[in-house]
Amino acid sequence: MIIGVPREIKESETRVALTPTGVSTLIRNGHTVLVEKNAGLLSGFTDRQYRDSGATILPQVVKIWKMAHMIVKVKEPLPSEFKHFRPGLILMTYLHLAGVPVVARALCQRQMTAIGYETVERADGEHPLLSPMSAVAGRMATQIGAQLLHRGIYGGKGLLLGGVSTTRRGTATVIGGGVVGVNAAEVAVGLGAETVLIEANPERARRLRERFMDKALVLEAGTDNVATWVKKSDLVVGAVLVSADKAPKVVTKRMVQSMEAGSVVIDVAIDQGGCMEPARPTTHRKPTYLKYGVLHYCVPNMPALTPQTSTEALTTATFPYIMNIAMHGLEGAMQQDVTLGRGLQCKGGKIVHPVIARLFRSLAAPGLLQAA
Ligand SMILES: NC(=O)c1ccc[n+]([C@@H]2O[C@H](COP(=O)([O-])OP(=O)(O)OC[C@H]3O[C@@H](n4cnc5c(N)ncnc54)[C@H](O)[C@@H]3O)[C@@H](O)[C@H]2O)c1
C-alpha cells in the first residue's frame, strides 16, 4: 500500500501522523511511504530521518494525495485540502464531524472513505485513539487554567490556584469524568486546588470516588450540582463526551454569568461543538476571549502545544491500526477488528456512522440529507 503523510496545515498544528520508526516498519513490510517535506519538523523529526527510514520526501503535497492509497493525518482536513479528495481514497485522522459539517459534506460529495480516530471504540466504550490526546489535553487544561487565573498578561482574577497555607485555595470544577476529566482533576488536586468532578454516569462516578477518595469531591451530574459549583469555581473545565455526537450544553450562559469576574472556563469539548453555551472555537494564536467578565479558552487542538509528547502518544496508539490496514486492506482489517470498524464514518458518498448520520438528519444539514 502507498501511505501518504501530509504536513498539518491547521493553525499552529505541530503534530505529525507517522514517526520515522513507524515509516521503517511499514517499509520493511513492503509498503511505500510518502512524506511531505518538513511534515515532522515541529515534532522533532527531520526529512533526513524520514528518508533514512525509507520514506520518499515530496515537496508537492498534491502528489502525495494523488499517489497514496491511504492518507494519515492528525487533524480534520481544511477546505484547501478538499480538492485532493477522490472516490475510495482512505483518510485516517481526527474528524470530529459533529463540529465541522462542512468536512462531512466534502467527504461525502467526493466519496472518500474516512476513519475518524475519535470513534474507534472498544466494546467497553473506551476510545483508544482519542484517549492519549485526551490525557494530554486534560492535564494541560488545568495547567493553562491556573496560568490564566494569574493577573499579569492574562487578565485573570489574580489567584494562585492552589493558594498557600494562609490563604483560601482556588476551586476547580471539572465536568465529565472521562479521560480529559480525570487528568484535569488529578492536576488540580496536585496543585492543591479544591477539586470537584461532576460525572453523568453513576457507575463511573462510583469508580471515581474510589479513585480520588477524599482528594476530590465527586458528584453525579444534575443541573443543580453543575450550577452550584460553576458559580463557586475559579476554574471550570468542560470535559464531557457523548461519543460522535454534538456535546451537550451542560454549562449555560446564566451559569457562566454567575461566576466571579476574572474566573476562567476551559471548554475542552469544543472539538465536538463545545459543552458551554458561550463557548466558540479559538486558536493557539488567540486562545482566549472575555465574556461576562470570565476568560474563555476553547482551543480544539490543545495537544499541538506539546508536539514532543503528543506526537509520541498519538502515534503509539494509531500505528497498530495503520499497520493493520496496510497489511490487510481496510475491509480485511475491519473484519478482524470491530473496534476499528466503529471508526468508519464516511464511505461511498454516505455518512455510515449511525450517531453522526442521525445527528446530520436531525440538523437537516444542507447537502448531507441524501448522504445520511
Ligand atoms: N480541545 C482539545 O484539544 C481536545 C483534546 C482531546 C480531547 N478533546 C475532547 O474532550 C472531550 C472529552 O474527551 P474524553 O476522552 O475525556 O471522553 P470520555 O468519553 O473519556 O469522557 C467523557 C465523560 O463525559 C461524561 N458525560 C457525558 N455527558 C455528561 C454530562 N451531561 N455531564 C457530566 N458528564 C457527562 C461521560 O459519562 C464520560 O465519562 C471530547 O469532546 C474530546 O474530543 C479535546
Describe the protein.
This protein has helices at about 20-30, 45-50, 60-65, 100-110, 130-150, 180-190, 200-210, 225-230, 255, 305-335, 340, 355-365; strands at about 1-5, 30-35, 55-60, 70, 90-95, 115, 170-175, 195-200, 215-220, 235-240, 265, 290, 295, 345, 350. α5 packs parallel to α6 (about 180-190). The mean pLDDT is about 95. It contains 12 helices and 15 strands. The two termini are about 30 Å apart. It has an 8-stranded mixed beta sheet with strand order 3-2-1-4-5-6-14-15, with helices on both faces. A 7-stranded mixed beta sheet has the order 9-8-7-10-11-13-12, sandwiched between helices. The chain folds into 2 domains: about 1-125 and about 305-365, NAD(P)-binding Rossmann-like Domain (Rossmann fold, 3-Layer(aba) Sandwich), CATH 3.40.50; about 130-305, 3-Layer(aba) Sandwich (Rossmann fold), CATH 3.40.50. The chain is α/β, with parallel strands linked by helices and about 375 residues long. Nicotinamide-adenine-dinucleotide binds next to α5, α6 and β8.
